């Protein structure tokens, strides 16, 4: 198991207390106290990470599984997760790791150093590394050290995040993070309070804007559509407009199907017609790429030219099966430039 790793971002306060500066919760901790995320502890007037290098989950995934559709399509990435989260989403699919308490964290998982993670990625033929499964923001020191090494070795780097990160932490990552796949889970403050257990979602939207506009990361957005919670037309329209006005009309928006889980197990899966409504609204407000997720085989998993409707990238079960884009990543029919980052790999079937 790893030793405690001193945190990079905190400030000392009165009475030997400290404030964590990694996420907007800004937990103020006394000696021996652990932050809301369950991963950071106050000791001797400093904050230490309890999960540096502590891996709960590891896999080689298609990049489309993140989901990222306009970033090295068809490639694979080494995906790593740890324990804890700065949200407490009541429908979390990965609650068994993200809702864990610190007492269990120190006895479970395996230690993988940043150097080892890069070596594994290269050995498995992955094009990059993704920090995912639980919230990577609270894994800040480890993810940053790993990303620095990954970039030196020519690997791309990806955050799959809830976006609840301070500008200071995001700035530390900015030079080494290529893609930022962020959840915009809802619109109203009531939704965020009830579902995610945060009072104000403004930092999530701010971090997405900073990632795209200041730090020039590739950004894609996901909204998991939960029946009776965030499946109304106003929510779809507000999120779609915000993406267009703040991230740009070419930013991919993934509206994904909710699967009943945890405290929301009593609900039903999102009707496909509701996802199609969200997609229609997103396109109506001016977004060029709105995708459906968790609906295998649906045509809206594919990429089409916004100008002429030509099929450009065909997908099946997280794999790219066909690409008609030119070498310049333009539509072969009308010549429109498509915002795809990196090379495109096509597959005839499952590789892993």
In N-to-C order, the SSE pattern is EEEEEEEEEHHEHEHEHEHHEHEHEEEE
Q: Could you give a short account of the major beta sheet?
A: 8 strands, mixed
What's the Cα radius of gyration?
20 Å
Strand order of the largest sheet: 8-9-11-12-13-14-15-16
Compute the number of strand runs: 19
Total helix count?
A: 9
CATH architecture annotation name of the largest domain:
Alpha-Beta Barrel
Strand content: 15-25%
| Secondary structure: helix percent | 25-40%
Low-confidence stretches: none
CATH first level of the largest domain: Alpha Beta
3D architecture notes:
This protein is α/β, with parallel strands linked by helices and 352 residues long. It folds into three domains: 5-49, no CATH class; 54-292, TIM Barrel (Alpha-Beta Barrel); 302-352, no CATH class. 25% of the residues lie in helices and 22% in strands. It contains nine helices and 19 strands. An eight-stranded mixed beta sheet has the order 8-9-11-12-13-14-15-16. It has a three-stranded antiparallel beta sheet with strand order 1-6-5, with no helix packed on it. It has a three-stranded antiparallel beta sheet with strand order 2-3-4, with no helix packed on it. Helix 3 (114-123) packs across helix 4 (140-152) and helix 8 (233-247) crosses helix 9. The two termini are 29 Å apart. The mean pLDDT is 95.
